[in-house]
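Milestone 3.1: sequence recovery, worked example.
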């Protein structure tokens, strides 16, 4: 009997070892299978871990490697959100790889990529680099679209009227801005409209604070370019619109002869003619923007109350309520400006964008009303140029504001808008009976059952 008992014990031990080996083998097999055939299933009600159909369609076009470096703080919620989002991109497009980097622990790497703040994503691929400062699906997808597009964004810079240059190291030029945009695949060319037309490959035209008036033929060429779907960014200085007032008015933007005075700037250590912008309009350019921008001797740029049909005008930047638009140039020059009935109290709009929508015509209907709009053109005007120059570009949020504007105008055709998903807040409301059930079952019933079973087991073993 003792021998049989030993054999039984040995066989039981062997079976236990065999079961362990089989379970271990099953785990190894499942792990290897998951590596080759990875599968994700989103069971959340809001589809929080799923990408939109628009993004999935874009990711299906990714054939070459795209590397994403996410500069996020380790141990914070932003790291968790970045991991969730980027893992979903990698799942749909294995050619997309990512790395989470803490800029505070890796300052040299952050400096190499020009990252000065956390929650910044740097995408590299197809010989390009794109920088995203919002950890949102729409921003990442649009950056990938720009990489897939491959072509450089061609920006033509108007010359011949004393405009600010995009070259040179003088504080008054915009070379630092141009260099920043060139890193993100922008290409700049000079353009003299008195000798040539706006090229067909122009993604946008920049008019950087001309000191002399544009010729009527140039204004007409710019107008036709916008109506056919062209994008124009203009910087206009106070009391010198260079003939752009009439062009702006046709697209629903009013340029008044004034200078914005802001008392808050004096409190912050600046001059009254350094208006501060802390409020932004609801637009893709300023979405999620939470930086203060500072302009330098700026004029008002405001939407007209009733823009032309097919034209949508949005104010992008507002001054504080303590500011006003001063119209007395002589008083300003003498330093004795005071607000009066001719001036407008703040907030004052310092930048506006006019966006055109072509009319829908029925077949055979050749009638037109309003502007002869043929394409989705845009006109964006800043009431100052100094804020974007080498001297002031890196002040607070100036660089982010103007680079966002460039990206939107030059690359807005392939942009897709993805509505941000918010987790619904569902309150748990219990009836009186349900509340009693929740209390009695886990608090009373289960502990009592465990206690009774324990006593029975104890009594049975004691009886042996």
């Amino acid at each position: 009997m003792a021998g049989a008992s030993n054999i039984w014990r040995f066989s039981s031990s062997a079976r236990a070892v065999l079961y362990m080996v089989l379970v271990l083998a099953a785990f190894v097999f499942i792990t290897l299978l998951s590596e080759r055939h990875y599968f994700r299933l989103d069971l959340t009600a809001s589809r929080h871990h799923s990408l939109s159909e628009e993004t999935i369609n874009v990711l299906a076009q990714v054939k070459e490697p795209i590397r994403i470096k996410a500069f996020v703080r380790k141990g914070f919620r932003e790291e968790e959100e970045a991991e969730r989002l980027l893992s979903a991109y990698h799942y749909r497009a294995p050619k997309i790889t990512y790395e989470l980097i803490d800029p505070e622990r890796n300052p040299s790497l952050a400096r190499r990529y020009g990252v000065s703040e956390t929650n910044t994503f740097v995408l590299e691929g197809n010989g390009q680099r794109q920088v995203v400062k919002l950890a949102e699906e729409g921003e990442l997808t649009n950056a990938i679209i720009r990489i897939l597009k491959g072509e450089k964004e061609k920006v033509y810079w108007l010359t011949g009227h004393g405009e600010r240059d995009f070259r040179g190291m003088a504080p008054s030029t915009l070379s630092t801005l141009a260099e920043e945009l060139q890193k993100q695949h922008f290409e700049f060319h000079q353009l003299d409209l008195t000798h040539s037309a706006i090229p067909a490959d122009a993604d946008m035209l920049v008019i950087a604070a001309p000191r002399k008036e544009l010729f009527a033929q140039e204004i007409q060429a710019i107008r036709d370019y916008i109506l056919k779907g062209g994008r124009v960014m203009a910087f206009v200085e106070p009391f010198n619109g260079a003939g752009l007032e009439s062009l702006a008015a046709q697209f629903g933007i009013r340029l008044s002869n004034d200078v914005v005075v802001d008392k808050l700037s004096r409190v912050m250590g600046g001059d009254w003619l350094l208006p501060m912008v802390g409020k932004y309009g609801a637009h893709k350019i300023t979405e999620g923007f939470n930086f203060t921008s500072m302009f330098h001797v700026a004029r008002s740029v405001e939407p007209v109350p009733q823009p032309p049909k097919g034209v949508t005008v949005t104010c992008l930047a507002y001054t504080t309520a303590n500011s006003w638009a001063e119209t007395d140039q002589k008083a300003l020059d003498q330093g004795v400006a005071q607000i009066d009935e001719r001036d407008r109290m703040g907030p004052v709009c310092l930048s506006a964008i006019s966006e055109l929508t072509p009319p829908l015509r029925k077949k055979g209907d050749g009638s037109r009303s309003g502007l002869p709009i043929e394409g989705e053109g845009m006109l964006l005007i800043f009431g100052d140029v100094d804020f974007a120059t080498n001297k002031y570009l890196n002040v607070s949020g100036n660089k982010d504001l103007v680079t966002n504007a460039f990206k939107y105008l030059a690359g807005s055709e392939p942009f897709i808008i993805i509505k941000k998903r918010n987790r619904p807040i569902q309150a748990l409301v219990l009836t009186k009976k349900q509340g009693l059930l929740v209390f009695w079952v886990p608090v009373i019933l289960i502990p009592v059952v465990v206690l009774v079973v324990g006593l029975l087991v104890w009594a049975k073993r004691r009886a042996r």
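The chain has four domains: 1-39, 53-143, 152-361+370-411, 429-457. Residues 429-457 form one domain.
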